[in-house]
C-alpha cells in the first residue's frame, strides 16, 4: 500500500449477484479493479463472492459459465452488487424480489449495476432515492418507477444505494469507491495499471479523483520517469507555484509531489522487475535512478522487498 495511505484496511466483503445473461464486461470491470487494489497494496482490502438465486451455475450473455460460491439467501456482507444485464426483466420473479428485500437487511449497501437498478426498484429498494440505469432503459425506468428520482448519470451514490449505468461506468464507480475507501493514491495506481486516460468522468456521487492541474502534473511525471524533473519544474509546467501544487496534491492524494513522483517511478521499476528480464541496473536507469543500489534501497523501503528478492522464485 502507498506509504501515505492512512485509511482503514479491514477487508470489505462484497457479494456479486449474477443472473443468466450477465455481462462479462461489466463483471470484469467490477472485480478486476478490486483485485488490482489488493495486488498493489499487498493486502486483502476487498474479498468477493459470486452469488446466484439458486445454487446452479449462471451463464453470461457470451456463454461464460460461472459456478457461484453461494446463494443470495445465505450471504451477507458490506456491499451487494446486483448484475443481471441482458434479459433482466425475466429475473424479476418473487424469489428474486424476496431475496433482494431480505439481503437489504444483511448488507450495508446495495448496488445495481447495468440493469440491476431495475430489479432493486422492482423490489421497492430504490424508493425515494436518486438512481440511474443503462441509458437505453432510462425512459422506461422513469415511467415504470415514478417513486425513484431517475437521472442520466454514469453512476449515482445516494446514501446506502448505488446505481450504475453500464460496464464502462462500473470501472469508474469501483475506482471511485477504492479512492473513497483507501485513498486517491491507490485509486490512481489502479487507474494507471489499466492505462485509463481519465478516471474523473461525470457522475453524481462526489468529486472526481483529481483536479485539472493535479492531473496535468501527474501526466508530466509519467512522461518523465526515466529523466526525472524537479518538483519546481513540474509546477512550472502546470502553471502553478510549487507550494500550491504541494498543497493540492496533499489534499487530493494524501502525499506531496515528491512522494507521488517517487511512487510512480518505483511502480515502473516493480513492473519491469516482474515482467521483464532486464538487469537491475537497466531497470534503475528506466526508473530514473543512476545507481542500482539507490533503486534497491528505495524499492525495499516502499515495497518491503528488494528487486532481486521479488524476482527470485520463492520455494
Using brief descriptors, characterize the structure shown.
315 residues; alpha/beta; Rossmann fold; Arc Repressor Mutant, subunit A; 2 domains; 7-stranded mixed β-sheet; two-stranded antiparallel sheet; elongated
Q: How would you describe this structure to a colleague?
A:
The protein is 45% helix and 14% strand. With 315 residues, the chain is an alpha/beta fold. It folds into 2 domains: 12-181, Class I glutamine amidotransferase (GATase) domain (Rossmann fold, 3-Layer(aba) Sandwich); 212-315, Homeodomain-like (Arc Repressor Mutant, subunit A, Orthogonal Bundle). The longest helix has 19 residues, at 257-275. The relative contact order is 0.10. Residues 1-6 and 198-209 have low confidence and may be disordered.
CATH class category name of the largest domain: Alpha Beta
Q: Domains counted in the coordinates: how many? A: 2
What is the name of the CATH topology of the largest domain?
Answer: Rossmann fold
Largest sheet: 7 strands, mixed
The 3D shape can be described as elongated
> What structural class do you assign from the helix and strand content?
alpha/beta
Annotated CATH architecture of the largest domain: 3-Layer(aba) Sandwich
InterPro entries: Class_I_gatase-like, Homeodomain-like_sf, HTH_AraC, HTH_AraC-typ_CS, INH-QAR
Pfam families: HTH_18 (PF12833)
Protein name: Helix-turn-helix domain-containing protein
Domain HTH araC/xylS-type: 215-313
Amino acid at each position: 500500500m502507498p506509504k501515505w495511505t492512512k485509511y482503514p484496511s479491514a477487508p470489505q466483503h462484497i457479494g456479486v449477484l449474477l443472473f443468466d445473461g450477465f455481462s462479462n464486461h461489466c463483471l470484469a470491470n467490477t472485480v478486476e479493479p478490486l483485485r488490482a487494489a489488493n495486488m498493489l497494496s499487498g493486502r486483502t482490502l476487498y474479498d468477493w463472492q459470486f452469488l446466484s438465486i439458486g445454487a446452479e451455475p449462471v451463464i453470461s450473455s457470451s456463454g461464460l459459465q460461472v459456478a457461484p460460491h453461494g446463494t443470495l439467501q445465505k450471504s451477507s456482507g458490506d456491499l451487494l452488487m446486483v448484475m443481471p444485464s441482458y434479459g433482466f426483466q425475466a429475473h424479476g420473479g418473487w424469489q428474486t424480489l424476496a431475496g433482494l428485500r431480505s439481503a437489504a437487511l444483511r448488507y450495508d449497501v446495495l448496488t445495481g449495476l447495468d440493469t440491476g437498478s431495475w430489479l432493486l426498484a422492482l423490489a421497492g429498494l430504490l424508493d425515494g432515492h436518486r438512481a440511474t440505469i443503462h441509458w437505453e432503459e432510462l425512459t422506461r425506468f422513469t415511467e415504470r418507477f415514478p417513486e425513484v428520482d431517475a437521472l442520466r448519470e454514469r453512476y449515482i451514490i445516494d446514501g446506502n444505494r448505488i446505481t450504475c449505468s453500464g460496464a464502462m461506468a462500473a470501472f469508474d464507480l469501483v475506482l471511485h469507491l477504492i479512492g473513497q475507501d483507501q485513498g486517491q493514491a491507490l485509486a490512481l495506481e489502479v487507474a494507471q495499471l489499466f492505462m485509463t486516460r481519465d478516471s474523473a468522468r461525470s457522475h453524481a456521487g462526489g468529486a472526481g479523483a483529481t483536479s485539472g492541474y493535479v492531473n496535468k502534473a501527474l501526466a508530466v511525471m509519467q512522461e518523465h520517469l526515466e529523466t526525472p524533473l524537479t518538483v519546481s519544474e513540474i509546477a512550472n509546467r502546470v502553471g502553478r507555484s510549487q507550494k500550491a501544487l504541494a498543497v493540492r496534491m496533499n489534499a487530493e492524494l494524501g502525499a506531496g509531489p515528491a512522494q507521488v513522483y517517487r511512487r510512480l517511478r518505483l511502480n515502473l521499476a516493480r513492473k519491469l522487475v516482474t515482467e521483464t528480464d532486464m538487469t537491475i541496473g537497466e531497470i534503475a536507469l528506466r526508473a530514473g535512478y543512476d545507481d542500482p543500489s539507490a533503486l534497491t534501497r528505495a524499492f525495499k523501503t516502499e515495497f518491503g522487498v528488494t528487486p532481486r528478492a521479488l524476482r527470485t522464485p520463492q520455494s
